[in-house]
Amino acid sequence: MKKILPGILFLLLLAVLSACGNKETPEERLEAYVGHWNKSEFTEMYQEYLTEGTKTAYSKEDFADRQEQLQKDMGVENLKVTYTKPEKGTKWDQDEPADFTIQVSMDTAAGPVEFEEKVALLYEEQEKEKNWFVEWDPSYILPDLEQGDEIGVSRTKAKRGEITDRNGVPIAQNGTGYTIGIVPEKLTDESKKPEIASLLGTTVEAIDSKLDQAWVKPDLFVPIGKASKDDEERIGKLVAIPGVGAQETEMRVYPYGPATAHLTGYIGSISAEQLEKLKDKGYTQTDQIGRRGLESLLEDRLRGEDGMKIFIKKSAEGADPVTVAEKQAQDGETVRLTIDAVMQKAAYDSMKGEPGTAASVDPSTGEVLALVSSPAYNPNEFITGMSGDRYKELEEDEKNPMFNRFAQSYAPGSSLKPITAAIGIEAGTLDPAKGLTINGKTWQKDSSWGAYRVSRLHEDAPNPIDLNKALIYSDNIYFAQQALAMGRETFAEGLKKYAFGEEIPLDAMDLTPSQISNDGKIGSEGQLADSSFGQGQMLVNILHLATMYEPFLTNGTMYEPVLFLGEEEPKVWKENILSADTASTIRSLLRNVVKDGYAQSANLPDIPIAGKTGTAELKAAGETSGKENGYFVSFNADHPSFILAMMVESVEDNGGSDYVAAMAAEVYRQTAE
Fold it and tell me: How far is CA 38 from CA 27, 101, 103, 452, in A?
């Protein structure tokens, strides 16, 4: 027995020493706890590190679930928790709390939050094991937070920036409209619901679903639709129905309606897909977002930044709320365009709903004064709520008002002829004064062309045909012969000087570039002839077409088109395209085209318009005739403050390109007033 006792004592001592060696210090426990905290692992913190007293006072839901939700509500990012290290050699008494200072910092949607707090660890036994545990309280979430307090998060909506024209006239603004609603107890005639639904472009079922919402009471105003402020007739019919009312509300407004629709676009409720993509930018499911046009392209500039306030609602009676963090709302930027709203509307109205497009530029700066697609939708309809039937009607309209034509490219027809002439003059192959003898309605170089022949509209043009007559009579044969004289390579290189084949550098707008042909080359003499008068595979964007006439007014310089006002000095896109003499020659001849030619509708007595008409034939292989798109590119010969390019589809039954010249003339009249 005496021999066994020393062995037992040795084993007991070894066990005690081993237990002492495995025991965690308060600092080690706090370090592990802080590690979980930095990872927002609140469940682990609750289950493994809190004192029994803390767990009795706060349930897991109060501790873990609440903090997880608060981090989402407050937009917490970059959470960082540290603690002040104790002095080296600190002795810890298990009968006394181990006190530390912790530092907490985080970024929230309302701004950064930083604070310090004292934390105590107690030595106690839990589940037959003794260790150090954190005595927690709510002030570790936010400073001054106590049991029973609530954390509030309020959001101040930023105002969306407006879009104005060059003169500060709004074309997309924050205005007001009306919310249309029903007070259930006052709607005494249920048979009126179909009429209400029809006026709002909705269904009786949709109205009933809103009236059946849980919060609805008989005497409450229940919103069922919206109406724009200028929709007086429809609003009048609605509010005349007993039980239906209208309340003024903030609303995005597009004062020029369809005239600027494809330029401004519109805003709408954020989709689930967009919300998922943009959730890191602070969007919520109730936000509006740009859906088309500049509203979409300028979303980051227009949106602004909402204000946010995080505060503590104290449980003590009469206690004032405590603001933890606050960020003021930053309203969106007001974006000023180079567009002239008067010209934009004049151009749109002059087209009378005919399918087509128009663009206008300031030749001395490249500033875009108008960018029109006709016909168009009314963006205000999307703001007030468009029914599925109405949207389907727009989509199925044969004139395709939802299609943005100024973003596309089309065969330019004879509107290209001044460009062809300028290339030939600069190449030394075209003498403006030299006449060619051209007889008959069609022509081909020789029999190697097979069945292909160039046709002209006015075979009665008197010989010899010089450049002046060729432009006045728009003689395709003359320009085909001149193109053959300069050759395929010279003509193609000349077109590239006018930026054919290049992206159109109009800020954020996605415009289809102009092309010489599908592969950028001219593969045959027949294609060369066709291309000389804007046919073949040639396609031109309407804004680029207006820009290509700039060198005639600037003596050889073409500016990059600009849509945003005052951001920078004009940028030269192409220079030294032609000489001052060539520019002067083309200018004077374009005045003759209007004065003596077939654009008499633009030959105004008080405004000396110069320009070139064009008719692009659109016919399938084997067809002898087809649709024709009409063009007119023009400027005031005495005061060329703008160039206006206009194209109207299917003018074959409306007098051809002179039909377009008449529309352009109306723009000059309206902008001169």
Answer: 16, 16, 12, 79
Question: If DSSP codes are grouped into helix, strand and coil, which group holds residue 462?
Answer: coil
- Three-state SS annotation for 277-320: HHHHHCCCCCCEEECCHHHHHCHHHHHCECEEEEEEECCCCCCC
SS3 119: strand
CATH number of the domain that 584 lies in? Answer: 3.40.710.10
Asked whether the beta carbons of 350 and 666 are under 8 A apart, the reply is yes
CB of 619 closer than 8 Å to CB of 659: no
Q: In angstroms, rounded to a whole number, what is the distance separating the alpha carbons of residues 549 and 254?
A: 32
- Among 147, 176, 205, give the residue marking a domain's end: 147
CB distance 104 to 324 below 8 Å? no
Has residue 8 been placed in a domain?
no
Summarised one tens digit per residue, pLDDT across range 497-525 is: 999 999 999 977 899 999 999 999 999 99
464 preceded by cis ω (within 30°)?
yes
Tell me, what's the pLDDT at 384?
Answer: 85
- What's the half-sphere exposure (Cβ side, CA atoms, 13 Å) at 21? 6
Enumerate the β-bridge partners of residue 39: none
Task: Kindly state the greatest CA–CA separation across the chain.
Answer: 143
Cis peptide before 505 (omega within 30 of 0): no
Which amino acid does the sequence have at 56? T
User: Residue 269: beta bridge partners?
Assistant: 288
Establish if 17 belongs to a structural domain.
Answer: no
Task: Find the angle CA(531)-CA(532)-CA(537) to the nearest 5 degrees.
Answer: 10
Catalytic residue among 373, 374, 414, 601: 414
Backbone angles phi, psi at 345, to 5 degrees: -70, -40
Q: Find out whether 538 and 520 touch, Cβ atoms under 8 Å.
A: no
- Confidence label for 18 from pLDDT (cuts 50, 70 and 90): very low
Say if residue 231's pLDDT is above 90: no
Is residue 627 within 8 A of residue 602, CB to CB? The reply is no
Residue 72 structure tokens:
């989402």
Average pLDDT over residues 345-349: 98
Of 147, 172, 205, which closes a domain? 147
How many structural domains is the chain composed of? Answer: 2
Looking at per-residue confidence, does 318 or 632 come out higher?
A: 632
Residue 69, amino acid = Q
**For 202, phi and psi rounded to 5 degrees?**
-130, -160
With vertex at residue 594, the alpha carbon angle to CA 608 and CA 461, rounded to the nearest 5 degrees, is 155
Q: Where are the beta strands (DSSP E) in 167-221?
A: 170-182
Decide the pairing of beta strands 163-164 and 335-336: parallel
Assign residue 67 the CATH number of its domain: 3.10.450.100
Q: Coil, helix or strand for 53?
A: helix
Domain span at 128: 22-147
3-state secondary structure of 31: helix
C-alpha–C-alpha distance, residues 79 and 66, integer Å: 16
- Which residues 6+ apart lie within 8 Å of 154 measured at CB? 308, 309, 311
Q: How is residue 515 annotated by DSSP? A: B
Instruction: Provide the CB-side half-sphere exposure for 102 (13 A, CA).
Output: 26
- Radius of gyration over every alpha carbon of the chain, rounded to an integer in angstroms: 38
Upper half-sphere CA count for residue 597 (Cβ side, 13 Å): 29
Residue 72 lies in a domain: yes
| pLDDT tens-digit series, residues 174-230 | 999 999 999 999 999 999 999 999 999 889 999 999 999 999 999 999 999 999 888
HSE-up of residue 291 (Cα within 13 Å, Cβ side): 15
Phi, psi of 337 (to 5 degrees): -95, 165
Please answer whether residues 93 and 86 qualify as being in contact, where contact means their C-beta atoms are separated by less than 8 angstroms.
no
How big is the CA angle at 169 (ends 167 and 173), to the nearest 5 degrees? 145
Structural domain includes residue 259: no
Reply yes or no on whether 414 is catalytic: yes
